[in-house]
Write a structure and sequence with these properties.
- By secondary structure, the protein is mostly helical.
- Among the domains are: about 1-120, no CATH class; about 225-308.
- Helices cover about 75% and strands about 0% of the residues.
- The protein has helices at about 5-20, 25-40, 50-65, 80-100, 100-120, 120-135, 140-160, 165-175, 185-200, 205-220, 225-240, 245-260, 275-285, 290-305.
- It is globular and about 60 Å long.
- It starts with a helix and ends with a helix.
- About 45% of the residues are buried.
Length: about 300
């Protein structure tokens, strides 16, 4: 019943965030694509790698000989309809990543293209930092990826486009910086992400930042008793939000930590007085929307069997 594009986008964003928080990434993506198809033609739920490559080739041609850093000085995005669409794309990015990686990459590319065409806005920071992540992890362009990541940070810190600062800090810390910087350096941005998310009421990214901080500390070789304390606090925080996907991710991290510390009855399972391994695995297998959590759980279990 929304009468304008701006109103339709606002309703879409509320629905997107709700479904994401309820572990219904599939429904969140449907809602986002319904909006995009109304204002931007055809969007496929499962685009091909060729679709992704063509969009990124066009983006590179659009940038041309301009320096990445010069994009910091693009004018502000003035069109309210375009800003509203950027808000929808920003909210769509996370559930798209959990649903189809090629769709996610197209979302990022379209956000960057909108910014180049119409100027920068709060969503542009998120677009550029994720563009950096895609360039690094998918295209193997580490230098350009890091420069785009820094561009996203600079828009937050030098131009005050900070509405999505939590998301920008987190993506930079997890998907851009680790390729060129020590892991403890990346941790600074994860803590900034959590504080910014709390301040903004962005519960989804507050939860993501807690889980990613534990991953960073495990990979950095921090003291396991300290990491276990942080993981326990993080799990309690996320469970209060009823964000099941991230609760399951952190639960798997906590199981690994406890086995590595010798706190499980033996080294053949995660079972203990507070955890039923069989029930947890059945829970993960019963919901296709928990595929990410399930994959992380089995990775943690494999690590436990190898290292413990």
């Amino acid at each position: 019943r929304a009468g304008t594009t701006v109103d339709l986008a606002a309703v879409t964003c509320v629905r997107l965030n709700l479904y994401t928080n309820l572990d219904r990434s599939d429904r969140a993506v449907e809602v986002g694509l319904e909006y995009l198809r109304r204002i931007d033609g055809q969007w496929s739920l499962h685009p091909t790698a060729q679709d992704v490559g063509q969009d990124y080739d066009r983006l590179r041609q659009q940038i041309g000989s301009s320096s990445i850093e010069a994009l910091l000085d693009l004018p502000s995005m003035a069109d309210p309809d375009q800003r509203a669409t950027m808000d929808v794309l920003t909210a769509l990015a996370s559930p798209a990543m959990f649903t189809d990686l090629n769709l996610f990459r197209l979302v990022v590319c379209r956000m960057a293209t909108l910014s180049l065409d119409n100027g920068n806005c709060d969503g542009s920071c998120y677009a550029y930092v994720w563009l950096g992540g895609v360039l690094v992890t998918y295209f193997g362009d580490y230098q350009a990826g890091h420069r785009f990541g820094r561009l996203g940070l600079d828009l937050v810190e030098k131009r005050g486009l900070d509405r999505h600062s939590a998301r920008v800090y987190l993506v930079f810390a997890v998907h851009v910086a680790p390729w060129l910087q020590p892991l403890p350096t990346c941790r600074v941005f994860l803590r900034r992400a959590f504080e910014a998310a709390k301040e903004a009421g962005d519960l989804i990214y507050a939860a993501y930042s807690r889980a990613d901080l534990i991953t960073n500390r495990l990979a950095s070789g921090d003291r396991l008793d300290d990491v276990e304390l942080e993981a326990g606090n993080a799990l309690e925080f996320v469970q209060k939000m009823r964000f099941g996907l991230i609760s399951d991710l952190i639960a798997a991290q906590l199981r690994l930590i406890r086995m590595l510390r010798g706190l499980t009855p033996d080294f053949t399972s995660f079972n203990d007085a507070d955890f039923d391994e069989g029930r947890f695995e059945q829970h993960l297998g019963s919901n296709p929307q928990l595929a990410i959590a399930a994959s992380r759980y089995w990775i943690r279990k494999l690590q436990a069997f190898v290292y413990a």
